[in-house]
């Protein structure tokens, strides 16, 4: 069932463009690096994933509410958060051809393992190893910090005083709205605020298709907890027995790359995860990522080593996905941000950021699960993409599949097409549906498989006699016959039972060549 050869980024990118998931933005003008537009299938996939995230983390729960903040906000926000001062990567420029590189990526691409990404280390490695521009062999400049925030101006004057930033993360909008949400929604600690929205980072070298973009979408929760109650998590038992693949900071510092297979309860007891609320959010994150169809075998939780911890973080874990063409890469970060942000906003705004908790006045600590939508979509498509009998099949989980059902008349004759259009109309009221009458039925099934459509309904000779149709399953090719008046009910129950009955048909064991690659 699996792809025989390793999937390449080029193969996946052309597949996504060809099928209308994503297009390079401004393609007719040569494209703009780091920007992609969503096509018809991509936009439906995006919507399914965002809706399910919002359902799982907000609507289903009573302790989390949402906000939708502005993209341009008061510039003091980013001074307080530390972004003006500390949100940068290191830039080196070729003194001959002028090409820009992100210094740590340049060295990584040359196979140089860095112990830390500081100005000193980067400068000395470049100097000692005599690193030159890979493009033209020219001398490189000294590394310089480069702030990743995009700036623009508000109002008619283009002066320094009118300069503002496009938000580089959604989190700060949650912090600055905390008190308003707390009072208007009547929240009580512990509670969370969620937000989905576009963010902007002027990445020095965007790459990896959707992986490193300059405009992307974050789905973030800031979960506020009394700092004295970080282990007082009433929901902990719901996730405690979940086994994760955990790579601790200590293991990495020893040079080990083999994750522990450990339950969240054990990870807390052993002290690998600093507090139960942090472990709980790791558990919920893995639960959602696997719920939308990611293979748990390709997910691991990696702790940040000291030198990579952000200025605000006490402890951070990245949920990483194994991309066959890039290796383990972050798709979500889960940080304990302590009370850093709230204290800074209190200091910069002069407004109190304290909340009441059982008669106690506290500045809460924050656990932050931060998901990047586009990286998750890239992981979903990578995970679902397989080549079966020489043809691509996109085995997306039915929960997020952009189109749920295809409708095909077996032949393009008036009686058949009229009936098929009737069925299509009926289904389109409830589901994203696709209709095609041209071409052989085999070719149309292949097309549907490539688009990731889990079910195909076919109108054939028997339909005209007894009003029954066949329903074909994308992953097993199994077909069942049911009557049209049972169709929506049947599809409803098939989609609802996808995890328990139909997902099992997929072989989720990573292919042998991948297991080989993953060996430390
Ligand atoms: P990286 O180290 O790869 O630059 P980060 O640690 O800076 O990422 P966060 O600030 O933790 O990323 O952002 C949360 C999430 O946003 C990440 O887990 C990732 O999924 C997503 N993300 C971050 N930067 C980008 C980007 N340039 N393009 C697409 N998604 C991104």
Topology:
Layout: H1 9-18, E1 22-24, E2 36-38, H2 40-59, E3 64-66, H3 76-81, H4 83-86, E4 88-93, E5 100-102, H5 103-109, H6 119-128, E6 144-147, E7 151-153, E8 163-165, H7 171-176, H8 178-184, E9 191-200, E10 215-225, H9 236-239, E11 243-247, H10 249-253, E12 260-263, H11 264-269, H12 276-291, E13 299-303, E14 315-323, E15 327-338, H13 340-349, E16 355-357, E17 360-362, E18 365-372, H14 373-384, E19 385-388, E20 391-394, E21 405-409, H15 414-428, E22 433-435, H16 441-450, E23 455-459, H17 461-466, E24 468-473, E25 479-483, H18 487-496, H19 498-502, H20 512-518
Parallel strand pairs: 3-9, 11-13, 21-22, 21-23
Antiparallel strand pairs: 1-2, 4-5, 4-6, 7-8, 9-10, 10-18, 11-12, 13-14, 14-15, 15-18, 16-17, 19-20, 23-24, 24-25
Bound molecules: adenosine-5'-triphosphate.
Adenosine-5'-triphosphate (ATP) is lined by residues 169, 201, 203, 212-213, 216, 218, 330-333, 370, 372, 374-375.
Can you offer a commentary on this structure?
It contains 20 helices and 25 strands. Strand 4 (88-93) and strand 5 form a beta hairpin. The mean pLDDT is 94. Adenosine-5'-triphosphate binds at residues 169, 201, 203, 212-213, 216, 218, 330-333, 370, 372, 374-375. Adenosine-5'-triphosphate is lined by residues 169, 201, 203, 212-213, 216, 218, 330-333, 370, 372, 374-375.
């Amino acid at each position: 069932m699996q792809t025989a050869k390793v999937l390449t980024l080029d193969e996946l990118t052309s597949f996504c463009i060809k099928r209308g998931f994503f297009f390079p933005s401004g393609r007719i003008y040569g494209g703009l690096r780091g920007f992609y537009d969503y096509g018809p299938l991509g936009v439906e996939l995006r919507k399914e994933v965002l809706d399910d995230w919002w359902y799982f983390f907000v609507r289903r729960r009573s302790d989390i509410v949402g906000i939708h903040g502005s993209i341009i906000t008061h510039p003091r926000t980013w001074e307080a958060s530390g972004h003006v001062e500390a949100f940068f990567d290191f830039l080196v420029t070729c003194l001959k051809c002028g090409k820009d590189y992100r210094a740590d990526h340049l060295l990584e691409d040359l196979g140089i393992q860095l112990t830390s990404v500081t100005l000193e280390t980067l400068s000395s490695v470049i100097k000692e190893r005599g690193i030159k521009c890979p493009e033209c062999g020219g001398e490189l400049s000294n590394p310089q910090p480069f702030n990743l925030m995009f700036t623009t101006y508000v109002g008619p004057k283009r002066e320094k005083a009118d300069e503002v930033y496009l938000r580089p993360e959604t989190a700060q909008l949650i912090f600055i709205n905390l008190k308003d949400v707390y009072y208007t929604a009547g929240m009580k600690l512990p509670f969370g605020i969620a937000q989905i929205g576009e963010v902007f980072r002027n990445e020095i070298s965007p790459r990896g298709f959707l992986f490193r973009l300059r405009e992307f979408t974050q789905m973030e929760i800031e979960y506020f907890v009394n700092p004295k109650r970080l282990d007082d998590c009433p929901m902990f038992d719901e996730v405690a027995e979940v086994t994760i693949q955990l790579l601790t900071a200590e293991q990495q510092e020893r040079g080990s790359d083999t994750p522990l297979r450990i339950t969240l309860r054990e990870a807390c007891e052993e002290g690998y995860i600093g507090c139960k609320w942090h472990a709980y959010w790791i558990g919920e994150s893995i639960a959602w990522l696997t719920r939308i169809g990611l293979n748990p075998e390709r997910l691991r939780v990696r702790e940040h080593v000291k030198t990579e911890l952000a200025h605000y973080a006490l402890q951070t874990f990245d949920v990483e996905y194994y991309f066959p063409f890039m290796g383990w890469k972050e798709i979500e970060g889960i940080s304990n941000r302590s009370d850093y942000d709230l204290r800074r906003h209190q200091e910069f705004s002069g407004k109190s950021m304290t909340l009441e908790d059982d008669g106690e006045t506290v500045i809460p600590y924050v656990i932050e699960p931060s998901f990047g939508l586009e990286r998750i979509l890239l992981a979903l498509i990578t995970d679902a993409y397989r080549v079966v009998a020489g043809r691509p099949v996109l085995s997306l989980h039915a929960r997020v599949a952009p189109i749920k059902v295809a409708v095909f008349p077996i032949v393009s004759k008036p009686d058949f097409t009229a009936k098929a259009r009737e069925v299509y109309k009926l289904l389109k009221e409830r589901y994203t549906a696709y209709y095609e009458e041209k071409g052989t039925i085999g070719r149309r099934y292949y097309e549907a498989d490539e688009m990731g459509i889990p079910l195909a309904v076919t109108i054939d000779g028997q339909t005209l006699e007894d009003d029954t149709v066949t329903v074909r399953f994308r992953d097993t090719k199994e077909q069942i016959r049911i009557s049209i008046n049972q169709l929506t009910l049947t599809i409803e129950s098939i989609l609802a039972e996808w995890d328990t009955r139909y997902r099992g048909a997929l072989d989720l064991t990573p292919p042998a060549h991948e297991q080989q690659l993953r060996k430390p």
